[in-house]
């Protein structure tokens, strides 16, 4: 019997990290004890008060049923209060909020909701790989827009205008449907600014392109969290995804949210309500608690990341990489020295010779080829160990 996969999977590979983690597992089975500085999964726990709510609610007999597709009202209110308190954005909890099982699923749901076969979507290069796979799975066509260091990792709006406009200045009717944007940007750490968000909103309005802003990093190593929806009338053209994975240390819980105009929430819900049957109530209530935490929570988190970042700077110095110290988010993005062909070369060299894994920038698009990305999601001792291994003239340094 021959089983064939659907055509929509053509050109969609297994997620890079899922493959690489298998390789790292194999090396570990051979006793290598690889230090993994690749993936952005917080190693720290959520606040104990968050876990307490989960425990208490899960122990109750009446919290185990299917939940409302639109999320529990208490959670939706917590999300709207969070948006007003930190971003100054007023959101109607009944109509403009959609809880998600992680923002990654939201990316897929949005693509499935809006894209027809062949619709064009602007995606950042470099950028989070899920944007392009979700667009392709939904039948859309990816059109990359360049983010380069020389332009401070911002889109070049003149190039964008040329891309979406016909030579005679006519709009390519309906061709470009959506644009994915993400600031603080992963992987480059480029911070958001009001001016940049204004330009993006203006561009979306001018060309009738739905702007999808993915905003999971605004609280990490960033003094002033910013939402694209804080731009005047942004909801007319934009939706925003947010997540508790990074800033609340809840990546494994799978909690995120979409914020947008009532029409957008209703449209995405039409698709999503056919995919899942709501989120476990105790998770929603614990997530509400997490969203109510004050400045102290974020300050403590950032103090830890700052301390780790200093060690990462040392590590990058040893590798002769250069980097910008103004980056936000939970990674450091760094340019590799000339002697390497690309970031994959450097990454493989230290994986096989020093037993340390660092992400090659090329996995985020070819504009990342001359860069690597180091995650801050490891304890200081782990970074110290990695520093020793890299300093050591011998391969491995296992057990150091
Ligand atoms: C830019 C970006 N968006 C979205 C996600 C997914 O986050 P979530 O855990 O909410 O699905 C990630 C996770 O690495 C990310 O880097």
Could you characterize the architecture of this molecule?
With 400 residues, this protein is of the alpha/beta class. Helix content is 38%, strand content 14%. The strands form 3 sheets. It has a 7-stranded mixed β-sheet with strand order 2-8-7-6-5-3-4, sandwiched between helices. Strands 9-10-13-12 form a 4-stranded antiparallel β-sheet. A two-stranded parallel ribbon has the order 1-11. Helix 7 links the parallel strand 5 and strand 6. The longest helix is centred in the last third of the chain and has 24 residues. The protein starts with 15 loop residues before the first helix and ends in a 9-residue tail after the last helix. 46% of the residues are buried. It binds pyridoxal-5'-phosphate.
Overall pLDDT confidence: 94
How many strand segments?
Answer: 13
Q: What characteristic shape results from the CA principal axes?
A: globular
- What is the number of helices? 12
Radius of gyration: 22 Å
Explain briefly what this protein structure is:
Helices cover 38% and strands 14% of the residues. It has helices spanning 16-29, 48-58, 73-87, 103-114, 129-137, 157-164, 194-207, 262-272, 281-291, 295-318, 343-354, 380-391; strands at 35-36, 97-100, 120-125, 141-146, 176-181, 210-214, 238-243, 256-259, 322-323, 331-335, 356-357, 359-360, 371-375.
